[in-house]
Amino acid sequence: MFDISDEADDAVQIILCQPDGRAEGDGNWTIGFIILQVQDDENERVVWKDIKSLAPRTKFSDVRQVRLSCDLEVGRYVIIPSTYEPDQESEFLLRVFSEKDARLCELQSNVVED
User: With a threshold of 0.85, does the pTM exceed it?
Assistant: First the structure.
């Protein structure tokens, strides 16, 4: 989860990396991510009813890393990395670069449905 708090839109670059599967004789998973804009409250959790909009997302690809550069409005965002196929698990490295302080933090629990 991260916040864009400046009055002007903020350019961010998000890079999602996976371990190189070719080194172990495997291929790469097809990976990508979506960005959700959520309600800005004091809780560091996401409730389905709090999702305001779907922000830009990547195309899913079987490369080692996918990246997205975009301008985001002021607000709170959640990045959800995933594989394209269901029931595939992988380790990810997520990098977020911002022109301004984005106050990035990891969500520690699952999404709560209220």
Answer: no
